[in-house]
């Protein structure tokens, strides 16, 4: 059986090396809506808004470590549910 796919939304400030937002989603549509909204919110500034897909928070941290250098000790964030 294939692992469950989840979506992980982050907003990253590269000038400070800091995550400003970190959320997870189980539903594609919710993740897409949140991504679009966050991109609009940060349009014109240097904040990187990224939506990752993976089976776990840990796999995203492993495949994209430059976003999470200071977050390695942080527990996975909870899924957003409506």
Question: How would you portray this structure in words?
Answer:
The chain has two helices and four strands. It has 82 residues and is of the alpha+beta class. The chain has a domain of 40 residues. Strand 1 and strand 2 form a beta hairpin. The relative contact order is 0.27.
Give a quick summary of the entry:
With 82 residues, the chain is of the alpha+beta class.
Oligomer: single chain
| H/E series | EEHEHE
Summed up, the helix count is 2
Q: How far apart are the termini?
A: 26 Å
Point out poorly predicted stretches: 72-82
- The helix content is 25-40%
Rg estimate, integer Å? 13 Å
Main beta-sheet strand count, sense and barrel state = 4 strands, mixed
Report mean pLDDT, rounded to a whole number.
83
Strand content: 25-35%
Number of strands: 4
Decide which structural class fits the backbone: alpha+beta
